[in-house]
Design a protein that fits this description.
Main location: nucleus
CATH topology of one domain: Nucleotidyltransferase, domain 5
InterPro entries: Nop56/Nop58, NOP58/56_N, Nop_C, Nop_dom, Nop_dom_sf, NOSIC
Structural class: alpha/beta
Number of strands: 7
Keywords: Nucleus, Ribosome biogenesis
Distance between the termini: 167 Å
GO biological process, one term: ribosome biogenesis
Strand order of the largest sheet: 5-4-3-6-7
Shape: extended
Protein name: Nucleolar protein 56
Length: 599
């Protein structure tokens, strides 16, 4: 064979390394026309053609080789035959996979066995339409095992666990009893992926569109598949479990009522906007009749009250007391009376004045409603987040809770997030333009940042956000609602302000917290004493009510006292008489002993 010896050596080495069969499958030894030496033109001098170039073997992959159709068909048929033979051998070695379906109903757990179901032969709509027929569903799945809940409380506990993605002990025992022991021979279809993750450690889990469609069919025809269960009982179980589950989800914790706080602060913001808009409308409307009143009375609510008192300028009788009560100052009332005499406003009709009066009364009602809402918000903040309210105020604290979504979410935020909470647009704009990020968000309205110098506003905002984060965590995770920690944190912020302005060193955080803990323990002891005293007083009151004769026993006790005073005297006389008798007996006995001794 003619050719390059180096190329032949490479072909032989590749064949020895990979094996002959594998080499022939992957490569083709083809011959190609290749010129050796320098290229010559086809027409030399004198019209003589150049000699034909020799043949050189070239190694070409199958994808690049130009194979004849017959050779291609033979090769493909042989490869397909080998592939089918391999698949048949694999199928023979592996047993068919059995699919079980877990359905959690309101009455208990059901385990279904899938018989036949072609997933690829039909579209999704055709599959759903086929599952609407109960006869087809009974051919596709059959009931394998069924267990019923003990009572409504057990059903609620199981539903809460499943919604949280927790596999209960009852569910695991039910599956272990009714599923095969060899895990490679079956798979368990579960609708909820979170529950599937919890069961994946013990059982092979399948979760896909076909499993969802089959479980929908099982849920639709559950009454016919489970013959031991009546339709009326299942409806009652669903209704009772639905009410109990929803009631448990919507139950309010009295110590964590942050949802009313969020609604109240949103309503307060809307009320402020509406009150300002309506008050400005009252000013514009009544200023045509009494324009001087706009400069005299600057407060919007006071302006509405004065407009209701004065009404038509010419008909005002000069009731100074009512005017003083409306504007809140005698000096302002005197100015109004002076301006009434020389006003340059136009006359107004009584019908227009009625409309102005009615609109002004609505503004006053909205202002009163805002006051009551503010008091309600203060009471709620003292109950839910007392330390945060004591530190930064109930309005800003409520806005922080509302912006975070709940007190728990606010407690989970770091101090850096609390610092810029409410300034997300400015933050993302700064990140996009690669500019300076904002230093504060909602906490900018705090008095601490307003009192700080311009160069220290960023430092105070960072320090205040840190203390707000601590206060929210104390409020969220503490058992008792106290304002001690919030007041101590507020003192720390004040000390930081003086440190930045004057340079006095503040106290350490450890010292402040130790003082706060001591105060909290004292408060607990006082509360315990008060509770104990109240319990004793209640118990004493019950005893007095049971035996009403007790106060009458005090009178004979006072009469017995003189008798008790007289009785000790005879006792002393008796003691003296006894002592005298003992002395005489001793005196009589001593000489007898002497006589015996002398004898």
């Amino acid at each position: 064979m003619l050719g390059c010896p180096q190329l032949l050596q490479q072909i032989v080495a590749a064949a020895e390394a990979q094996g002959k069969d594998k080499f022939e499958e992957n490569y083709v030894i083809a011959t190609s026309w290749q010129r050796s030496g320098q290229q010559q033109s086809h027409s030399g001098k004198g019209g003589n053609r150049c000699p034909d170039p020799p043949l050189h073997p070239v190694v070409v992959p199958h994808s690049m080789a130009q194979v004849s159709p017959r050779q291609d068909r033979r090769r493909s048929s042989s490869l397909n035959g080998d592939k089918h033979r391999g698949e048949s051998s694999d199928e023979a070695s592996e047993a068919p996979m059995t699919t079980y379906l877990l359905y959690e109903s309101a009455a208990g757990y059901a385990l279904f066995l899938k018989k036949e179901f072609e997933e690829t032969a039909e579209t999704e709509e055709e599959v759903q339409n086929s599952l609407l027929d109960p006869k087809k569903v009974s051919k596709i799945v059959s009931l394998h095992a069924w267990t019923q809940f003990r009572d409504a409380e057990d059903a609620l506990n199981q539903a809460n666990s499943i919604s949280a993605g927790i596999a209960t002990e009852e569910l695991v025992n039910f599956l272990e009893m009714n599923l095969p022991k060899k895990k490679k021979t079956y798979q368990l279809g579960v609708y909820d992926p979170e529950l599937g993750k919890a069961l994946a450690e013990q059982f092979p889990i399948a979760h896909g569109q076909s499993v969802k469609e089959l479980l929908r069919g099982c849920r639709l025809h559950f009454n016919r598949l489970v013959k031991d269960l009546n339709e009326g009982d299942l409806d009652k179980a669903r209704l009772g479990l639905g009410h109990a589950f929803s009631r448990a989800r919507m139950q309010l914790d009295p110590n964590r009522q942050d949802k009313p706080i969020m609604n109240t602060i949103a309503l307060l913001d809307n009320l402020d906007k509406n009150i300002n808009t309506f008050a400005m409308r009252v000013r514009e409307w009544y200023a045509w009749h009494f324009p001087e009143l706009t400069k005299i009375v600057t407060d919007n609510i006071a302006y509405a009250k004065v407009s209701r008192v004065v009404r038509v300028r010419d008909n005002f009788e000069g009731d100074k007391e009512a005017l003083t009560e409306a504007c809140g100052s005698e000096d302002v009332a005197d100015e109004i009376l002076k301006a009434l005499k020389m006003s340059m406003g136009q006359d107004i009709v009584e019908m227009d004045m009625k409309n102005i009066d009615h609109f002004a009364s609505e503004v006053i009602k909205l202002a009163d409603m805002r006051k009551t809402l503010h008091e309600y918000l203060k009471a709620k903040m003292d109950l839910v987040a007392p330390n945060l309210a004591a530190l930064i105020g109930e309005i800003i604290g409520a806005r922080l809770i509302s912006h975070a979504g709940s007190l728990t979410n606010l407690a989970k935020y770091p101090a850096s997030t609390v610092q810029i909470l409410g300034a997300e647009k400015a933050l993302f704009r700064a990140i996009k333009t690669k500019g300076n990020t904002p230093k504060y968000g909602l906490i900018f309205h705090s008095t601490f940042i307003g009192r700080a110098q311009q160069k220290n506003k960023g430092r105070i905002s960072r320090y205040l956000a840190n203390k707000c984060s601590l206060a929210s965590r104390i409020d969220c995770f503490s058992d008792e609602a106290t304002t001690v920690f919030g007041e101590k944190l507020k003192d720390q912020v004040e000390e930081r302000l003086t440190f930045l302005s004057e340079g006095t060193t503040p106290r350490k955080n450890l010292e402040v917290m130790q003082e706060a803990i001591k105060e909290v323990t004292k408060l607990r002891k006082k509360r315990a004493k008060k509770a104990k005293a109240a319990a004793e007083a209640a118990a004493g009151g019950e005893e007095v009510e049971e035996g009403a004769v007790k106060p009458k026993k005090k009178r004979p006790a006072a009469e017995v006292q003189p008798e008790a005073e007289e009785t000790p005297a005879p006792k002393k006389k008796k003691k003296r008489a006894v002592e005298a008798e003992e002395e005489t007996a001793a005196s009589e006995a001593t000489p007898k002993r002497k006589k015996k001794a002398s004898a």
